[in-house]
Specification:
There is one protein chain. With about 190 residues, the chain is of the alpha/beta class. It has a single domain, classed as 3-Layer(aba) Sandwich (Rossmann fold), CATH 3.40.50.300. About 40% of the residues lie in helices and about 25% in strands. The protein is built from 7 helices and 11 strands. The strands form 3 sheets. It has a 5-stranded parallel beta sheet, with helices on both faces. It has a 4-stranded mixed beta sheet with strand order 4-3-6-5. It has a two-stranded antiparallel sheet with strand order 9-10. Strand 5 and strand 6 form a beta hairpin. Helix 1 crosses helix 7 and helix 5 packs across helix 6. It is globular and about 45 Å long.
Length: about 190
């Protein structure tokens, strides 16, 4: 970022593909600010409200969405997720990288609105490998893993879509090795 202007970096990918691990590594850099999304899903073990997500009731989330307080928002696997608007504007004005970890539907909203940035899709090497990763987590039952795999197939197909004549994502990075994937994403952000 030699111009002093900030840069929006959007990272998406199926559950279990490694996007959260990539974002966790990028957040360690002093010039990166990470968006804390809002969600209606339940708090998981080890998560903290306001740090991992802003955990909202469905009614509160819908009120905020109606008031246009989200940059984007989407429904995913029965829950609502959204990106509060003002932190991005402040980070970009300070010349920082603003990192968003969002779902494909949210990316589509940003692209349709013409929001400039670097859009990166983190893909698993295969659906079989993705199933193994989800099973190793131990936090989802077989039915939920099957549902996540169906969603992953749709997300991987959507990553190749065109929106307003341009690709939905600027680049797809296949996560075969997490450290190599992190280095590749860093090279994309800071060439």
């Amino acid at each position: 970022m030699s111009t002093g202007q900030g840069k929006l970096v959007v990272i998406s990918g199926p559950s279990g593909a490694g996007k959260t691990s990539v974002c966790r590594a990028l957040k360690r850099r002093p010039d990166v600010e990470f968006s804390v999304s809002a969600t209606t899903r339940q708090l998981r073990a080890g998560e903290r409200d306001g740090v991992d997500y802003h955990f909202l009731t469905r009614e509160d989330f819908q009120r905020r969405a109606a008031a246009n307080q989200f940059l984007e928002w989407a429904s995913y696997n029965g829950n609502l997720y959204g990106t509060p608007r003002w932190p991005m504007d402040q980070a970009l004005a300070r010349g920082r990288v603003f990192l968003l970890e969002i779902e494909v539907a949210g990316t589509r909203q940003l692209r349709e609105r013409g929001v400039p940035g670097l859009y990166v899709f983190i893909a698993p090497p295969s659906l079989a490998e993705l199933r193994c990763r989800l099973e190793k987590r131990g936090s989802n039952g077989a039915a939920e893993i099957d549902q996540r795999l169906r969603i992953a197939e749709a997300e991987m197909a959507a990553a190749r879509e065109l929106v307003a004549g341009a690709p939905l994502y600027d680049v797809t990075v296949t996560n075969r090795d997490l450290d190599a994937t992190i280095r590749e994403v860093e090279r994309l952000i800071w060439p």
